Amino acid sequence: LQLLEVKEDLNATESELDAVEGDLERTEGVLQTERALHNRTEGLLQTERALHNRTKEQLETCSTSLAASDKRMKETRTLQNITKWDLLYTAPYFNQVFTEDHLEELSSSWDVLRRFVGLNMTEGVVEHFRRFHREPDCDSALI
Fold this sequence. Notes:
The protein starts with a helix and ends in an 11-residue tail after the last helix. The chain is mostly helical. 69% of the residues lie in helices and 0% in strands. The protein is rod-shaped, with a radius of gyration of 39 Å. Mean pLDDT is 86; it is low at 136-143.
């Protein structure tokens, strides 16, 4: 009788052990999946850090370059040394072949000014020209 009870206990313990082993295998599988996800996340984080550092360097370079350009512009473009020819330093003309189209664009821009002879050329008027007369077809915005 005692041997039968021990055998039953042993069978119950063996069943419990099988169940625990099954749980352990599932837990190991979940752990492997979690480790893989963790490693992938670590890789993505390293990539993001590298991109962040590269972007930060580019921003610093651009900021430095912009500050230097701003300083140069402020030093060279003062009211005392601006001439009518400085317009030719701008993007459509500088280091480009001067064409009939360029000449026509400049001529039409200056023709618009004829309408303003006698007007006090204030900052507001200049800003009006900057906003509304960027393109040759903008003459209708004038009046």
